[in-house]
Amino acid sequence: MTENCEIKEFQIAQDLALPTVQLGVVGTLTCAQPCVTYNGVEYCEPGAYSVQENCEIIEFQIARPELCRRCNLAW
């Protein structure tokens, strides 16, 4: 007596990507304040940033007003 052996493959579809939290602008650089501190980290360049913390991706921006282009700063 022979039994029919079958191998069945199962796939469980699950999105394992970390959730993303978008905070928008969290600080603005100025000539008087060329760096801002957010969540214990100092940022001295304008732009978009993302950090991973507590099983989430946190996205935020550091802004720069147009008037600050006259400053003698690297940005």
Q: How are the SSEs placed, and which strands pair?
A:
Blueprint: E1 20-28, E2 36-38, E3 41-43, E4 47-53, E5 56-63
Parallel strand pairs: 1-5
Antiparallel strand pairs: 2-3, 4-5
In terms of DSSP E residues, the strand content is 35-45%
- Report the structural category: mainly beta
Question: Which whole number gives the mean pLDDT?
Answer: 82
Rg (CA only): 24 Å
Which series of helices and strands comes N to C?
EEEEE
Q: Count of DSSP E strands? A: 5
Q: What is the number of helices?
A: 0
The assembly state of the depicted protein chains is single chain
Distance linking N and C termini? 80 Å
**Low-confidence stretches at least 5 residues in length (pLDDT < 50)?**
none
Strand order of the largest sheet: 1-5-4
List the main descriptive attributes of the protein structure presented here.
single chain, three-stranded mixed beta sheet, 75 residues, 5 strands, mainly beta, 0% helix
Description:
The protein is mainly β and 75 residues long. The protein contains no helices and 5 strands. A hairpin with a 2-residue loop joins strand 2 and strand 3. The radius of gyration is 24 Å and the shape is rod-shaped. The N and C termini lie far apart (80 Å). The relative contact order is 0.28. The mean pLDDT is 82.
